[in-house]
Amino acid sequence: MKTIVLGGGIAGVTSAYYLARDGRDVTVVERRAGVALETSFANAGLVAPGHSYTWASPRAPKILLKSLFVEGQALRLRLKADPHMWAWCAQFLLNCTEARSRENTSRKVRLCRYSQHQLQEVTAREQLEYDLISRGLLYLYRDAASFERGRTHMSILVENGLPLETLGAAAVAAREPALAHARERIAGAIYCPSDESGDAHRFTRALKEVCERMGVRFVFDAPIEAIEAAGDRITGVRTRAGVIQGDDYVLALGSWSPILARPLGYRIAIYPVKGYSATFPCAPEHRPPEMGGVDENHLVAWARFGARLRFTATADFAGYDTRHTPADFTSMMQAARELFPQGADYTQPTYWAGLRPMTPEGTPLIGRTRHRNFFLNTGHGHMGWTMSCGTAKLLADIMAGREPELDMTGLTLR
C-alpha cells in the first residue's frame, strides 16, 4: 500500500512514521527544502496538556473586540475582506459558550494526554534527542483575581485526569529559582508536574531520519499545485516536480489544508493564527529557567533548549502574513525581562513568526473524508507539538481499520 503524505511539518512526519510502522510504502511531499520549516520551526516547545483550554471561551469575544481598538493585546484580530476569515469567526463565536468551551477543553486535554504518552513511547523507542526537559511546567498569574480564575478553571483538567498543583509565590520561587527575584510580581502558579518541553524542530528532524531508515521517501522543494480526483477517489497530487500518485493520501498541510481541499468541494474550518517567537543564546553567566511555563496574564510562554532560551507570544488573526518587525516583540520582551532579567543575552535575538492552523473548536481534524482514499491530520492549532504523535497514531489506526484508542467524537470532519 503506497501512501502519500502531504506536508513535512510535525503532523506530516509523525504520520509518516506511524504509517511506515504499519508496513506502508510512504512518500512525504513538502514545498520547503526540509522538514519542520513552517509552524514547527520555532514554536513554544511546550508539551502541555496542562494548557489544553480552548481559545473559544465566554471571555474571548470581549478580548478580540478590544484588540480592534487597543494596541499590544495578546489576542489580536485584524479584520480583512476575506470571507473565509468571517466564516471562521462566526463558527468561533458559536463555540464561545460555557457549555461548548467545557466540552472542547475536555476533548483537547484527553487528546493531549494520550498524545504525550505516544510521544514518550516514540522518544524511548527511537532514542530521540531534542532538548527534552521533564520537570513539569509552571502557569504563572500576576494578581490574585486572575490566579483565582485559574484555580477555578483548572477543575476541568483535573476532572479529565490531569495532575495539577497550586503554588503560592514562595513555592513558585522554590520550584524555579530563576523566578526568585520576581516573587513580588507573582500571585501564584498552577504547576503541572507531568508537562514537558523540547525542541519540536529538532524532534521532527530526528524522526525524519528514523523514517528514512524505515524506507520513507521525502520529496522536497515540491509545492503542491492541486489534488486531483475522479469520482470518490483521489488520483494524484500535481506538484511543480510532476504528478505524484499513490493508493491513499493524507492531508497534513496545517493552515494550507483548506486551500488545497477547497477545489475538491471541502469547506474545512481552519484559519491561520500567527504567533511570534524570540530565541536567545545563554552563556554560563546567565540564569535561565530550569523548566518552561506561561505568564498567563501576558500569554507569554518560555522554554529552554540547552544553551538557548525562547519566548513566544501573541495570537494574531492576520491571515497568511508571516511578516514581522521588532515592534511585534516589545510586549513579549518586557515580560521576559521582568521574569528572567539574567536569563539570556537579550541583545542577540532570533525573531520568527509562524501560522497556527486553528479550528473554531481548538481540536484537530483526523481521519476519513468523503473520498475513500483521502484522510486528514490537520488543524492542530497552538497544540501541534503536544498533539502530534497522538493524532498520527489515531490516523494510522483508522487507515488500518483498527479501532482508535481514543473517542473520536469532535475530532473528525463529520
UniProtKB/TrEMBL annotation:
**Highest taxon of the source?**
Bacteria
SUPFAM superfamilies linked to this entry: FAD-linked reductases, C-terminal domain, FAD/NAD(P)-binding domain
EC number(s) stated in the UniProt entry for this protein: 1.4.99.-
Task: List UniProt keywords, sorted A-Z.
Answer: Oxidoreductase
Top-level EC class, please?
oxidoreductase
Recorded GO terms, molecular function? oxidoreductase activity
Q: Where is the FAD dependent oxidoreductase domain?
A: 3-397
Q: Provide the family line.
A: Belongs to the DadA oxidoreductase family.
This chain belongs to the protein called D-amino acid dehydrogenase 1
